[in-house]
Amino acid sequence: MILALILATSLFLLSVGSHLVILNAGHTLLEQNCSLLHKLGIALLVLFSHLTVAAFFAAGFWIGEELGLGGFRQAGAMTAMDYFYFSLINVTTLGLADIFPTDHLRVLAGVEALTGFALISCSAQLFWTMMHKGEKA
What does the pLDDT read at residue 134? Predict the structure, then answer.
């Protein structure tokens, strides 16, 4: 359990740190120009950031499984795409439950969902700022 918490905390810090760096780049772009092209570029940065976070956690699930922290229940053996798919569904808090972790990997899944919720909120703030940039008061 301690190892699962250490892994989850490490992934949380890596995810939040990378997300904040990418969002900061988005804010910098927004300060330079608020054209439609810049706004679309910022939207792509946000998408890239969330996909990166999902990839971090997918790797974490693979590492956790290799360390014997748990496994996954689903049909067949897990592939890299299965780890990424589960992570992407989990980080968005959608949780389809066609693949689900067992044992201590459930801790990692819970921390990923909390991380995703927090990061989506940060992204929403950037989108709100972006949508209101250039409006007259």
Answer: 61
